[in-house]
Amino acid sequence: MQQDLLERLLATRTRDLAALEAGHRELLAASPDLHRRLLRWLAAHEPESPILSVGLALVATSGDPVGRQLVTRLIEELPITTVADVVDYIQGWYVDRLHLKQARKRFQDEMTQAYTATANLVRETMQEQTGVTTQDFRGGEILVTLGQYDKVQQVLDYLQLPYQTLPCGVIDELPLRADQVLIINCPGQFAADELEVVRRFVANGGTLITTDWALQTTLQPAFPGTVEYNGRSTSDDVVPVSWVDPDSPYTRGVEVPGQTISWWLEGSSYPIRVLDPRVSVLVRSAEMKRKYGEDALVVTFGYGEGRVFHLTSHYYLQRSQGDKSVKAEEVVHSLGGKAIMDEAITSGVSGSQLSAAYSSLRLLANILYESRRQCGV
Amino acid sequence: MTQKEEIREPHGLFRNTPRCLRRAIERRLAALETDADRFDREALVNFVRLKRLHALLHVQPGARARATFFGKPVPGSPRAALRELVQSRDDPRAAATLVRQYRIPYLLAEATLGTITPPVALALIETLDPEELIGRLPLMARRELLVGPVREALLHRLKELARHPSDRFSYAKIESVVRQANLDRQVAAAAFALIETGPRGGQLIGDLAMLVDVSSSMPREGSCIELAAAIAWRIDQALEEGARLQVYTASTEGNALAVKRESGLDQWRRVFTLGAPAAPGTSLGAALDRLAAEGGAVSRLVLVTDGYENRPPRFVSAYERYRSSTGRRPTIHLVQPTGAAQQLARDLKNAQIGFTVFTVDRHLLGLDAMIASLNAQASENRIDQILAFREPSE
Hints:
The complex is a heterodimer.
Chain A: H1 2-10, H2 17-30, H3 32-45, H4 50-60, H5 65-75, H6 80-91, E1 93-102, H7 112-130, E2 142-145, H8 152-159, E3 164-166, E4 181-184, H9 192-203, E5 207-211, H10 214-222, E6 227-229, E7 237-240, E8 243-244, E9 262-265, E10 272-274, E11 280-284, H11 286-292, E12 296-303, E13 306-311, H12 328-335, H13 341-346, H14 351-375
Parallel strand pairs in A: 2-3, 2-4, 4-5, 5-13
Antiparallel strand pairs in A: 6-10, 7-9, 8-11, 11-12, 12-13
Chain B: E1 2-11, H1 19-34, H2 36-45, H3 47-56, H4 63-70, H5 78-87, H6 92-102, H7 106-113, H8 118-127, H9 130-142, H10 148-162, H11 171-181, H12 185-192, E2 208-213, H13 226-238, E3 245-250, E4 254-257, H14 265-271, H15 284-293, E5 300-304, H16 315-326, E6 331-337, H17 343-350, E7 356-360, H18 370-377, H19 379-387
Parallel strand pairs in B: 2-3, 2-5, 5-6, 6-7
Antiparallel strand pairs in B: 3-4
């Protein structure tokens, strides 16, 4: 027990003075003798350690006369820097910070109500199916690079998943982890050395999600020979989805029974040409192939220990698609989400808007929750 | 619209300094003032701290301290020399002479002169304390000072320091400096000659398990994980006779490797000639779980890894299970190539689990120091030392 406390104290980050103080208090309460021995050992071997200065400050202000005697004796031999640190810690100091926070302004459009109505259902379903909660995403597990054209943050907000946004240019300064998800908003522009960081991140186990123009700006140079832009950009169009991979965990529940998913293509979206047979197509559209030469809408491939996802067009759908005549009641019933029915009906959301929002949320949620589950966090 | 929030973070105890401590510090400061040279040196290096101690605790300064901290520095003292140094900004030779004469620390010299010129850099290389010299090399390299005569002087100084057994540094310190300063092979070799060998030197005591990350992200030469082979061979040689050496590979699952003790380097190379596993992912916890299941109660765990872990079971949780199932608390050593990630180290830090890191330098000059370094840094050793600590007077 005492040894455990000692080990924990020695393993505490020396910059975290409050944690050091807590560790000292625990050890002091458990064994004052061992604590004094620790202080004497530190004075002899690591005299400039913050563990020592915090410990001395604590003992000096305690009521223990033996401890106080020890401190006065050690003070006469220690470096001046440590003596000054002890006095500083006893006297205490304040650090004043001014925290500037941008007030959150949520984007409002005709799909807002549909996203709001379906988000809870998606979140609860994912939690139930994967056992992963939104708490498991705390600690910077989702990184989003800022882009001009896509705003996946809006979808993440609806899913109540925490994320960190960053400009593309700082990617090479981050200590990326192999259990993180990096989402690159369209267009995603990186310098060559930053692309290498992205490639290494995936090779070491990270998950990369890109949309639309990032196909040409990020995926083609970072992962050559996998996918590419076919050179025929789309017009502002809506195409029906003809096939969704029934076996992939990433497309589970994306299809709304009795509904055809309509995929909104923004003006100048980039169709995906698959170059490597190891690239899996998750969602296809026959009409997309007829009109623009490629049928792939969502693709994924493994690279090293990680995985890359790319989809045509954007995550956040800014308008409804498909058959607006479908009543909200029918869709809600088929999704099994009775709870959202009232809100959907009162806000005048159509069935196609609901199913489009649900599919869009579910696809992203599948990827994020599944990657978290696989990482074992 | 921007919201402003003012945050005030308190640090420390917010107590008055106890009288007994104040008296001890007064005695300490008075003793310091009795030796003018030592006082001047301390006042040069720790000016702000000493001044604050006097002011905060209302310690009556002596004549020299009063002049140094609250008046005009005594002529001929290093603090007075700083004023001369400011005036010699345009004369690098004069500045170098002052730096040599008063052994002015690097940061003070740079702050005073604005920029370090090659003659001043040469003077600093010759006069800095060994610890400061080693610590400032990355900064000097960033300023592109370690070229030509300055580099030669550095090489000469490092060789000179190697002759004094008192000037020794930990492997981690030297490796970090070599990496950050991007030292060339010759200078790096001279720096590595300053590594301390530790009291136990070259023998490892107790059973040891090696968990080797064999996932596709580990650097390979051909299909051999050379680093793992070189480390395993050295550990095998250094491990005491009769101690068990268990080796496990870790990818998405853990597998035991059967290797006899005292195998040659070629045999270890053969053992670690493994293609990338079919299933991508790294789980060091899987290898540790396997070790626990096979009853391997060891006193050291050496993890050869690139620092990434992305599949369950994770190492930190597996380590807690291992400790409770075996009742042992093995010391953890992360042995990793240059450029390895800090992910695993951060996970261990967050869980307050003690560990050591041995980063193999890019020149592979420090590998021979690995065993001594593992011995010297082991947290188990640190705790043992604390538990057994007796002062000379006791």
